[in-house]
From TrEMBL:
Pfam families: Pterin_4a
Protein's recorded name: 4a-hydroxytetrahydrobiopterin dehydratase
Catalytic activities: (4aS,6R)-4a-hydroxy-L-erythro-5,6,7,8-tetrahydrobiopterin = (6R)-L-erythro-6,7-dihydrobiopterin + H2O
Gene3D superfamilies noted in UniProt: Transcriptional coactivator/pterin dehydratase
Any GO MF annotation of the entry: 4-alpha-hydroxytetrahydrobiopterin dehydratase activity
Source organism per UniProt: Paenibacillus spongiae
Protein family according to the UniProt entry: Belongs to the pterin-4-alpha-carbinolamine dehydratase family.
Alphabetic keyword roster: Lyase
The keyword Lyase belongs to this UniProt entry's keyword annotation: yes
EC number(s) from the headed UniProt entry: 4.2.1.96
NCBIfam families reported in the protein's UniProt record: PRK00823.1-2
Amino acid sequence: MGKMEKMPPASADEAIAALDGWEREDEKWIRRSYRFKTFPDAVSFVNRVAAIAEEMVHHPFISIDYKKVTLRLTSWHAGGLTELDMVSARRYNEAYTTES
C-alpha cells in the first residue's frame, strides 16, 4: 500500500467511528478485542490476522488472553494513525465475522 500520511485527528475520529468495535486508545493507537468460544478459535483468528498483516506489510500488536484476542494498530512511519490502520482494522473485522 505504500507509505501513508498521518490522518488529521478529525478524520481519524470519523474513520474510527465507522469501524465496528474499534476505539481510540490515544492519539496514536486504535484497539479492538475479539471474543471466541475456545482458545483454539482465538489462535485460528490470530493466524488469519497474521496472513492479512503479511499481505498488507502492516502488523498489529496482538495479545491473546485465553479466549480473547486484542489487536492494536498504529503506523510508526507516520507517527500515528493512517488510512492503512483503518483498512487493516476493516480487514480484521471481516476475518472475524466471516470465519468465527
